[in-house]
Amino acid sequence: MVLKSNFPLREKSIIEFIRILLPEAVDKDVEIVSSENDGKIKIEVQIDGKIGIQEIKNYENVIEDQKVIMTKTALLKAYNKKYPWGGLIGVRPSKMTRKLFLMGFLKGEVKEILTELYLVTKEKIELILEVLETEEKLLNKEAMNLYIGIPFCPSKCKYCSFASYEINSALGKYYPGFVETLLKEIEIIGDYSSKREFKYESLYIGGGTPSTLTEEDTVRVLEAIHKYIDTSNLKEFTFEAGREDSITTKKLEILKRYGVDRVSLNPQTFNEVTLSNLNRKFNRENFDKVYSEIKEIGFILNMDIILGLPGEGVSDILSTLDELEKYDIENLTIHSLALKKGSNLYRESFEESDVDRITIENRIKKLVENKGMHPYYMYRQKNSLDWGENVGYSKPGFESRFNIEMIEENQSTMGLGGGAISKTVVYETEVLDQITRLVNPKDPALYIREMIERNDTKMKLFDDVK
Hints:
about 475 residues, alpha/beta, nine-stranded mixed beta sheet, 15 helices, about 40% helix, about 20% strand
């Protein structure tokens, strides 16, 4: 592929865009011409004998890479592609839109930019605006959040690319050392956080599958948190239990005793054949038992499902949505399958199922209306279904602050444990921020070996956080 342009262009960005949304255009030469007149920018692309033209008001003084964005959507026009999210890929639509408001754009102007510049449909724009309305009530850049990663699972699901290792695999031998190292890291970061007077608003234990911890080690980790971390400012404490095959009644009682108020129980789908093919164990009878115990003990409960799993068509997805009607949950997260390079599905060159977007979206709308839920956070990923997004729904008052803050990148995140990402957000202005990331090793052996050194670097990074 040869890209010719009369203005500076990030070629890698255009090539990646074509690979994801215009696979038929891969390896085709592209000629791009930009011109300006009467306060407007015009982009014309020629590719494979086709022409695409984009013309819109000049926002270059406030919108970075406007010409690059217009080049992408002109390419969509050349191939007559009409995606619900238009040219938006690999970005946080709500964060981007929120920044437009912070820049001073009015609601009508924001809608125009999303419609004309990005080619986003009316339905998706309304979704973004509804999410933002809820987020604005909860965002708090004066606080921080804390994440603890447990990189072990009962089995490795084929679609998973997270820090996760089968507890019964060769790497499972590092489990005892991982727990001891994590306890030490909690002590180190707790002492540092106390000296810096950090105020943690949300605490999230994820993974992997945190409930892979033994009952004894669950107690030890939670006791360490309460001993070394100041939890007096917490507004929520989440433990992503996730899988019914690793949850016990005693573990749930332990979580409640140590102040956890939110848990997840994630079926992903209720099609047991699909789950078996994905190397995810599932027992419906035990799932329902665990669900009943979660409700009886009194946790705020989230369930996750994934749309577009291999072998699942519209009827399978609709069946899972029907099954969800049976459960009284406060939160529901609906993911569109995204093929990530760290997953087995990616290596197996899995092809996505062809699903009926309108039918599924209408059923989701009916489901969340029946449950009295509204969308409160969302994000998109590269390599997801072209129309898809990941949306968190919640009953009013049960929104997860951690989810919102992570997606909006509004707060600094202190990450502990395997594969945890620490993130400092330092504001230069209301709109501009400087974000720096530091990743803990997800390999448990490397985490054990490098924890002390990594934390020295981490604390230096957080010295800039006020």
